[in-house]
What does this fold into?
Amino acid sequence: MKSRQKYGETFKIKLLNETIIFILNPSDWTNVIRNQSFLFMGDTFSKTIFDMDHHFFGKSQLDMKLQGYFNQYLKNSDDLEKINNQLINQMFLFFKNEKARSIENKSQWIKSGLFQFSWNLLFYSITKTLFGDIQLESLRDNYRLFDSNIQFFFLLLPRWIYPLIFGNVLKCRSHLNKYWLNKIHENNESELIRDRTNLMIDNPEWFSEKDYSGEKTFLLWSSLSNTIPTLFWSLFHILQDKTIFEIVKEEIDKNFPFVSLDNSKGIDFDDQWNL
It folds into this structure.
């Protein structure tokens, strides 16, 4: 926030002989895309990293509609509350499943590193919240390998290099992209994903199968790539400081009523929940 106040929502960085313009406000993207004097790397990144055709890129009406769904569901308080409630419920189900697994294995505790815990919790809860009843087992290992190597795709090396060096990563990306084509709509998917999917399906002249599937993989990656490290570092610093830990614990106890993992109905969001 301080950097945004100091430098504004659009600023330049000189790196070697290149000038890079950072645009923080998505509403400005369309104007930049249409400016022929700029090279907007979003098109190149989408094709190189997520294997999209991007025929629709730069079509202002489609860009505005796609971006509008983010504004509608992630900025509107009522729609955002629905997603938050679903996310909390999925987190509850994650812990419930972990408890059942520990009982099945006849162990009282399941040990895990802090980052692995953060990864498992958010991979389960975020993907279930956004995409519905998807088969996590079909995605988990492929996503993990793809995500752990994605920085090499951001280098934008010549495309012929990637099959030679990163063949396994490309196979993982292919598996992820093909997965979304098996079933267009999953049960219990979020309205955000539903509406974006319908827009693509209803406009086949602009959105190819590669656009649709690559977009889904992009949304999967973008929903997790920053969230998992954020949770890890938040928990890390909270657990490092006893005072902060007690403050956070007190706030949780005050605003979130106790819910037993033995509760088969999940979480009932009523007046007790002070979100």
Observations:
- The chain has 14 helices and two strands.
- The chain has two domains: 1-35, 55-255.
- Residues 89 and 267 are 6 Å apart (CA to CA).
